[in-house]
Amino acid sequence: MQLLRPLAAGLLLCASSALADPITISDGSHVLELPGTPERVVALEFSFVDALASVGVSPVGVADDNDASRLPPEVREVTGDWTSVGTRAQPATETIAALKPDLIIADLDRHAASYETLSAIAPTLLLPSRGESYEESLASAEIVGHAVGRDAEMAARLELHHERMADYAAKAKAVLPGGATVIFGAAREDSLSLHGPDSYSGGVLQSLGLTVPEIREGGDAYEFVSIEQLLALDPGYLLVGHYRRPSIVDTWQDGPLWSVLGAAQQGHVVAVDSNVWARNRGIIAAEKIARTTIEILDGSYAAPQE
After folding, report:
1. All domains in the chain, ordered by first residue
2. Is 187 buried (19+), middle (13-18) or exposed (0-12) by CB count in 10 A?
3. Helix (H, G, I), strand (E, B) or coil at 239
4. Per residue in 89-132, pLDDT tens?
5. CB 292 within 8 A of CB 172
6. pLDDT tens digits, residue range 159-191?
7. Total Cβ atoms within 10 A of residue 174
8. Phi, psi (5° rounding) for residue 303?
């Protein structure tokens, strides 16, 4: 996922400050020539909705998995209502076309095979989202801001974001001066996927000065683990987003090995919002993850209601 780093450094082509002027932008694979500031935007990943909300832009359509509540309320409060265009994995092109968008923001991983179909409907940006790191998500947000004619607003929002994250990092250090080993995992009925240091949530946690352990040497950013592998990692805090309950972590908690886990012994196995921690990425999501982490560390956190 090295695509966005050079983009953030210099591939963004500056548009005129006049809103009616054309916008030229590269996503690393294509160069788009937009005739003016897009007014009807369709976003096919949650991180793109986060970026739009960060600069006060409301999409007309969102691939929301047919469940608007999967996006954080902080995002929905800004964007207001939208038309669902189906799931992120398989958005409904007929619904997208009916919205008459002037920009579609699609995921490089999920939607590359549909690029020709989507670009026949409207100019389409292909940006990484699904597997991007925290740093790369901020670079994607910068590109989205440029695409909707909000360069100045996005620059200001990113500056505020870095200030807020620095403040959260200072709070984490004040609570635990020696730091802590923390890892997040997404749990289903039959699997636990840990998010390592190169993952999105791992990057957010590391920006707070916390240690995210490498799941296995040379491994991927996201790794499925057994309870034995989890015990070998033995993180100080295990933060779990339960996609469905009971999850495999619930099952493990009733087994004989669970009491060996240090985080379990210390009461540091904590349920967090899987939508924010796993499905959403971006500026607003990162700040919510950071705020939640501080509350977990200082003992003021209340787990989400199931």
Report:
1. 4-149 (3.40.50.1980), 158-298 (3.40.50.1980)
2. buried
3. strand
4. 999 999 999 999 999 999 998 999 999 999 999 999 999 887 78
5. no
6. 999 999 999 999 999 999 989 999 999 999 999
7. 11
8. -65, 150
